[in-house]
Amino acid sequence: MQFRILGPVEIHDERRGLRIVPTGSKQRVLLGALVVKAGHLLSYHRLIDELWGEHPPANPANALQAHIARLRKLLEDAGSTGQERIDTHALGYQLHTGPDATDAGRFHRLCAQGRAVIAADPEQAVHLLRQALALWRGPALQGSLGGDICLAEAAQLEENRLVALETLYEASLRAGLHHGITGELEELIGDNPVRERFYELLMVALHRCGRQAEALGTYERARTRLAEELGVEPGAALRRRVRSILSPGREPAPASARPAAPVVRSLPPRSGTAGRRAAASAPQGGAVVLDLGDELARLRRRLENLTREQEDLARRFDQLTARTAAAR
What we know:
Structural class: mainly alpha
Number of strands: 8
Radius of gyration: 27 Å
Distance between the termini: 67 Å
Strand content: 5-15%
Helix content: 55-70%
């Protein structure tokens, strides 16, 4: 028997292929909390708060006991051998589980195995991490987010999923699989627009595919989105990455990389003579071919300005620290 929480909470009898899902919302919340805290005693008060919060029923202890009785019946229906059981204690309830009891536990084990071999065998790491991520059927503890126990666990599991994805694509890059992951990373950036690591991984993948302008454009996308959403500039890792791309030989594309295709963008019309010349030479439909040299020069200027600003802030901070120390 396995308890599944990487998605809607359910009980799965692997021997008979049975999948049992609690029908009521309180039953799902209760099962989720007991699975999350399996092996630990949960007090009556904590479980009542998890199920009903500030609006408990007239007799919450009896209502909780009734829900526990229904869950015990579900375990029997799912073919429990006695290892999986809910024990009653003077202060609360405790769920006991068998080996390999949850999909979350298996997910963590596969991730750990993948991380352990990433340096020596990145292809095996990719295989293990994709196995781990395939266990997810939806948001963690979906339909069971009643109180603090499940909410906190769901948030932690989601963070673990994102870290596993970052590790997967790092392993993919180590294994030379950059051509196959750019689309997946684009989707992840769409879903997680302020997670800088995904931008960095996409920049590396695009650069190794010979798509340098797109890699630099990814940095600009990250900078714009971080400024809009959080009011911050890209962190040190992204800045180092763009410097390595702009510095020949720092992040070379492999010999098998395809040559970069010209980047075509639709640009607004420019006024004056320069604009008329650009319009005359542009392809039909208002699209112009981006000048890679101009794009690199613009990004270099941007990077130099950021470096100067950081150095200026550091000098001002040192001066303020010195004045504060002198005042003492």
